[in-house]
Automatic annotation (TrEMBL):
<dbReference type="GO" id="GO:0009168">
    <property type="term" value="P:purine ribonucleoside monophosphate biosynthetic process"/>
</dbReference>
<dbReference type="InterPro" id="IPR001365">
    <property type="entry name" value="A_deaminase_dom"/>
</dbReference>
<comment type="similarity">
    <text>Belongs to the metallo-dependent hydrolases superfamily. Adenosine and AMP deaminases family. Adenosine deaminase subfamily.</text>
</comment>
<dbReference type="InterPro" id="IPR032466">
    <property type="entry name" value="Metal_Hydrolase"/>
</dbReference>
<dbReference type="GO" id="GO:0005829">
    <property type="term" value="C:cytosol"/>
</dbReference>
<dbReference type="GO" id="GO:0009117">
    <property type="term" value="P:nucleotide metabolic process"/>
</dbReference>
<feature type="binding site">
    <location>
        <position position="206"/>
    </location>
    <ligand>
        <name>Zn(2+)</name>
    </ligand>
</feature>
<dbReference type="GO" id="GO:0043103">
    <property type="term" value="P:hypoxanthine salvage"/>
</dbReference>
<feature type="site" description="Important for catalytic activity">
    <location>
        <position position="230"/>
    </location>
</feature>
<dbReference type="Pfam" id="PF00962">
    <property type="entry name" value="A_deaminase"/>
</dbReference>
<dbReference type="GO" id="GO:0004000">
    <property type="term" value="F:adenosine deaminase activity"/>
</dbReference>
<keyword id="KW-0479">Metal-binding</keyword>
<keyword id="KW-0378">Hydrolase</keyword>
<feature type="binding site">
    <location>
        <position position="179"/>
    </location>
    <ligand>
        <name>substrate</name>
    </ligand>
</feature>
<keyword id="KW-0546">Nucleotide metabolism</keyword>
<feature type="binding site">
    <location>
        <position position="23"/>
    </location>
    <ligand>
        <name>substrate</name>
    </ligand>
</feature>
<dbReference type="InterPro" id="IPR028893">
    <property type="entry name" value="A_deaminase"/>
</dbReference>
Length: 360
């Protein structure tokens, strides 16, 4: 089938989409940050919402994961009360629903939201309140679950893993680790990952973004990650010869054979330097080799993006059409951390019928 070049924006938005990798503290509305900062006297680099949006995008456009992460001081800083967390969570769901997202797993690090005295439990409860309000306001057109993140440079992973288990029947679908990757290998938290496995739970690990193959190898083979956050550097284990034939190393083969989902975030990867450009993003090669590739936003604020925009960029860069978008979306739905019957229902009742109705 010949792919169509460039899909119309309104249809990209209308298409049912699935989002597995999106940070709550990376997706605030600029105007909300301005409001919340004024309430608590948090000093911002810009006080006008448009100027602030530009500041985030430019500051995050740094070519380094560490510098990119510095921008979060101004989102996390205004997310320290239950009411602020609930508002941000509710608006997140509203924004995703308006963009045609039908299922999302939204991650955040509870340990970053306790500066003003909230307990970890209260952080999760406040976010759940916002998600529930947002889903109800969207007429249940979207399902949103939490992933609880532990920060790699801290030492609270076990506590956060226990929190994820305590909330597993109240909206939390799994666990993640994030933060600077170089110097903080995932095996530092092996006890948390082993605990989650014993609890029959699910987790993803940011790996292969700010560091290469050893990080992916540890995440998969030592820690047992169900999915990889980004995983872009898996291409370092793939050689393409002059005839265009790809040779997979053992780790790349393992990741493909086991259908380990890659949560790829094209715009974010360009900003942190994990990929040179959208046009040269490894997603294209990995998708052509039938890795379990998914498309995600990572941080909508820092990348000034949305899931429909990320798909738009791919349709322009790679000539992707509805067939590729459906494949990527079904990949994501198959890889979600909710029960199989719920995933199956979304695929057969929501996703497939919509794409089947598009003229190809
Ligand atoms: O792409 C990323 N790689 C690693 N860490 C990240 C990325 N995006 C955000 N965070 C980190 O995750 C925390 C919880 O949401 C954020 O505060 C940020 O520090
Ligand atoms: Zn991320």
């Amino acid at each position: 089938m010949e792919p169509t070049r460039g899909l119309p924006d309104d249809l990209l938005r209308a298409a049912p989409k699935v989002l597995l990798h999106d940070h709550l503290d990376g997706g605030l509305r600029p105007a909300t940050i301005v409001d919340l900062a004024a309430e608590i006297g948090h000093e911002l680099p810009e006080t006008d919402a448009d100027a602030l949006a530009t500041w985030f995008a430019e500051a995050a456009d740094s070519g380094s994961l560490e510098r990119y992460l510095e921008t979060f001081a101004h989102t996390v800083g205004v997310m320290q009360t239950a009411s602020a967390l609930t508002r941000v969570a509710r608006e997140c769901v509203e924004d995703l629903a308006a963009d045609g997202v039908v299922y999302a797993e939204i991650r955040y690090a509870p340990e970053l939201h306790v500066e003003s005295g909230l307990e970890l439990e209260e952080v999760v409860a406040a976010v759940q309140q916002g998600f529930a309000e947002g889903m109800a306001a969207a007429g249940d057109r979207i399902i949103v679950r939490h992933l609880l993140t532990a920060m790699r440079q801290a030492a609270r992973a076990m506590e956060i893993a226990e929190l994820a288990i305590a909330w597993r029947d109240r909206g939390v679908a799994g666990f993640d680790i994030a933060g600077p990757e170089a110097g903080y290998p995932p095996t530092r938290f092996i006890d948390a990952f082993e605990y989650l496995q014993r609890e029959n739970s699910h987790f993803t690990i940011h790996a292969g973004e700010g560091f290469g193959l050893p990080s992916i190898w540890e995440a998969v083979q030592w820690c047992g990650a169900d999915r990889l956050g980004h995983g872009v550097r898996i291409v370092d284990d793939i050689k393409v010869d002059d005839a265009g034939v790809a040779q997979l190393g053992r780790l790349a083969s393992y990741v493909r054979d086991k259908r380990i989902p890659l949560e790829m975030c094209p715009s974010s990867n360009v900003q942190t330097g994990a990929a040179p450009s959208i046009a040269e993003h490894p997603l294209k090669l990995l998708a052509s080799l039938r890795f379990r590739v998914t498309v995600n936003t990572d941080n909508r604020l820092m990348s000034r993006t949305s899931l429909s925009q990320e798909f738009g960029l791919l349709t322009e860069a790679f000539g992707y059409g509805w067939a590729e978008m459906e494949w990527l979306t079904v990949n994501a739905m198959k890889s979600a951390f909710i029960p199989y019957d719920e995933r199956y229902r979304l695929i057969t009742e929501t996703i497939k019928p919509w794409y089947a109705a598009q003229v190809r």
